[in-house]
């Protein structure tokens, strides 16, 4: 049975997703708009289905959300880092890539812990220099592959994820 206000939330989500579609396609042609409306409707519907199953719980700490402005800066900075590494490789220098592990409290199965894990993976993987390989929940480690070694722990601390 739908909860009160779910219909309004679905319509708001549909509107936002459709707006994002229009930004991506940069056109207001009838066919594009119709396809976008269908795609946004399906995405909003699937989101409502998943939300109703309680399979995906996500309740991020507000402190962390307030620090996410750092991610686009890391993307720009890491892009320069990756290009420097590319040019160095073209000049015959070896690539100093590594796999590192960082202490990371994965928390439990609650929504806040799930959000922290998802945000850590998303933030570290969005920037092009690193990709999260695994979160080892038993040992409390986050394993990361880095093209050019960097201080992953300080990134996690800056985002209030550690």
UniProtKB/TrEMBL annotation:
Coiled coil: none annotated. InterPro entries: Cation_antiport_E. It comes from Deinococcus sonorensis KR-87. This is Na+/H+ antiporter subunit E. One of its GO terms (molecular function) is monoatomic cation transmembrane transporter activity. Keywords: Membrane, Plasmid, Transmembrane, Transmembrane helix. GO terms for cellular component: membrane. The chain crosses the membrane at residues 6-26, 33-51, 71-91.
């Amino acid at each position: 049975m739908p909860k009160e206000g779910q219909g309004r939330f679905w319509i708001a989500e549909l509107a936002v997703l459709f707006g994002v579609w229009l930004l991506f396609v940069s056109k207001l042609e009838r066919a594009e708009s119709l396809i976008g409306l269908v795609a946004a409707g399906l995405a909003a519907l699937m989101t409502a289905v998943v939300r109703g199953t309680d399979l995906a719980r996500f309740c991020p700490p507000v402190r962390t959300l307030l620090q996410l402005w750092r991610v686009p800066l890391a993307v720009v900075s890491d892009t320069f880092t990756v290009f420097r590494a590319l040019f160095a490789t073209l000049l015959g220098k070896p690539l100093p890539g590594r796999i590192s592990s960082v202490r990371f409290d994965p928390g439990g199965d609650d929504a806040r812990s799930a959000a922290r894990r998802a945000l850590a993976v998303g933030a570290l993987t969005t920037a092009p220099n690193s990709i999260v390989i695994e979160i080892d929940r038993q040992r409390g480690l986050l394993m990361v592959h880095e093209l050019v070694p960097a201080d992953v722990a300080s990134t996690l601390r800056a985002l209030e994820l550690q």
